[in-house]
Amino acid sequence: MVILLSILKHSKAAGEKVLIFTNNLSTLNYLQYLLILRGFTFLRIDGSAANRRSRPDDIAAFSAGGHDAYIISIKAGGQGINLFTASRVVNLDAYFSPIWDAQPVGRAYRIGQQKDVFVYHFIAEGSVDTQLAKLKHLKHRLADVLVDKNWRERKAFIGEHDLKKLTDRPVLVQPKTFWKGEEFWGLDILVLDRVVGEKGSERALSDIHVLSEPVAMEKRRVEMRWCLWEP
Does residue 195 lie within any of the structural domains? Predict the structure, then answer.
């Protein structure tokens, strides 16, 4: 959670709001406890009846300002909700389907959005998250071939070597040192550059990938891989 807290801190300093998505209610409860402990103001969307009754007022209050973040259960709040006043989206969970990744992005990147939207996908390197991410990217490439007008220019299928990697056992990984000039540097100067340069991040991050967005460059997706252990 070191990286998440750093994203929240720098987003708040820049006057930007953050949407945080998870598929696990226990994670949602932990996030609520953590944000209270660290002094961030936030609202919550889950599947409870009481939450559904207060949701319209909560969304209006978030849009009006005064809250740093919105923590959201992806199944309860991943569809049809308009939260375009937020410009940073954090997806804490790895899914094998790219559709689940697209729904959280759509809460902020929609009609009415006046800013660039930055999306951060968290991957626990060395765990099953790594394998799920590979499956997700494979399915995304397959969908490109089937439904995208540029299908002739893309290669959707992986070779035997890459296919074997999907069944590899998770391994322990070490943190990575990042330098100015990396692929992601300058993409989000208000948040990402400051997160990476902050003391403590060097012990948590193992890799950062920029996921290409050929259609809409106003939506920038970054995959942040964090370590399961510290040296």
Answer: yes
